[in-house]
Amino acid sequence: MTRSYYAGRTARALELAARGPVTATALAADLRIDPRTARRLLTRLAADGMVAAVDGRPRRYVPGPRLLALAARLSAHGPGRPRTA
Hints:
Distance between the termini: 33 Å
Number of strands: 3
Strand content: 5-15%
Helix content: 55-70%
Number of helices: 4
Order of helices and strands: HEHHEEH
Structural class: mainly alpha
Shape: globular
Radius of gyration: 14 Å
């Protein structure tokens, strides 16, 4: 597997979480991977603050504080506007 495969898989997990709560089972089906692999990916993204776990069973994940902050920064600049550091 290449790094681009893993990056694409991670990006897809973030896209699904941004659309609404996502479970490991739903992510696994979408990515065609084992549910345990999907669970590990979501757990890692949660540890990094990119997604947040919602209470309940099955555990669901939504955008976390880091993903929300990134989205806010991107939307503040809009398409075609210059970005400053």
